[in-house]
Specification:
Layout (H helix, E strand, L loop, with lengths): L1 H11 L7 H26 L11 H21 L1
């Protein structure tokens, strides 16, 4: 619920951010963040464990956070 609230706040304040590059970065970070939340919470809500498919939650978290950090670094130094 908190993730959806943060996503809605990002979408609501979209037009107040006047820098086009930062708007694109906000969109990319929003999508990646929602993907991380979904990939970590859906297996917990399902009766079948994610480990039975060979998926590690910590690996998904690490990859998602790496992608967000790479986007932020790229936007900062670009």
């Amino acid at each position: 619920i908190l993730s959806l609230s943060a996503a809605l706040q990002t979408v609501r304040t979209w037009k107040t951010d006047l820098v086009a590059g930062r708007r694109r970065l906000r969109f990319a970070v929003l999508i990646l963040s929602l993907l991380i939340v979904v990939s970590l919470s859906v297996p917990e809500l399902m009766p079948i464990s994610a480990r039975s498919f060979g998926i590690s939650g910590s690996l998904a978290t690490a990859v998602g956070l790496l992608a967000i950090a790479a986007l932020a670094g790229w936007a900062l130094f670009h």
